[in-house]
Amino acid sequence: MYIILVYDVGEKRVAKMLRLCRQYLNWIQNSVFEGEITDSKLKELLHKAKKIMDRQEDSIIVFKSREQKWLEKDIIGQEKNKLDTFL
Amino acid sequence: MYIILVYDVGEKRVAKMLRLCRQYLNWIQNSVFEGEITDSKLKELLHKAKKIMDRQEDSIIVFKSREQKWLEKDIIGQEKNKLDTFL
């Protein structure tokens, strides 16, 4: 499935969360990631993220789309992370 | 259509961008918005956003899904903006 993941975590936890999410997804901007991922890998990612998070303060939102083609993406202005650098 | 909009703009422009996006979409976290919107209203929003942005520095990404039901949403931790406050 294709997902968009956004997190809103305390300053002290941002670096750790960024490093974790980068292992599974493509960073696109601020605290926003996207990418193809399996159910089990997403469970693994979220399991690790919950250990980093302060569940009383922080938040992660995952938007899941069964297929990337169901999600049209438009970028206005600067593309902060040229995805093609990963291809 | 249902969209997720994320922006990454310079500190001086954040407040203006937040106010603009709130007129069209639901704020959910950090610089992330979601909501149902028509083609023409999205064009209107982006037209206004381009006037606020510094196109050399800032970025807006819009993920479009033809229908909300094609996008499953999971929230881990705190829901920063209880959508039901708008219903």
Automatic annotation (TrEMBL), chains A, B:
Record's keyword annotation contains Kinase: no
Keyword terms: Antiviral defense, Endonuclease, Hydrolase, Magnesium, Metal-binding, Nuclease
Name assigned to this protein: CRISPR-associated endoribonuclease Cas2
Source taxonomy: Bacteria, Pseudomonadati, Bacteroidota, Chitinophagia, Chitinophagales
Top-level enzyme category: hydrolase
Cofactor(s) named in the record: Mg(2+)
Similarity field: Belongs to the CRISPR-associated endoribonuclease Cas2 protein family.
Subunit comment: Homodimer, forms a heterotetramer with a Cas1 homodimer.
Record-linked InterPro entries: CRISPR_associated_Cas2, Virulence_VapD/CRISPR_Cas2
The organism of origin for this protein: Niabella digestorum
Enzyme Commission number(s) of this protein: 3.1.-.-
One of the record's GO molecular function terms: endonuclease activity
Binding site for Mg(2+): D8
The UniProt record lists the keyword Cytoplasm: no
Record's function text: CRISPR (clustered regularly interspaced short palindromic repeat), is an adaptive immune system that provides protection against mobile genetic elements (viruses, transposable elements and conjugative plasmids). CRISPR clusters contain sequences complementary to antecedent mobile elements and target invading nucleic acids. CRISPR clusters are transcribed and processed into CRISPR RNA (crRNA). Functions as a ssRNA-specific endoribonuclease. Involved in the integration of spacer DNA into the CRISPR cassette.
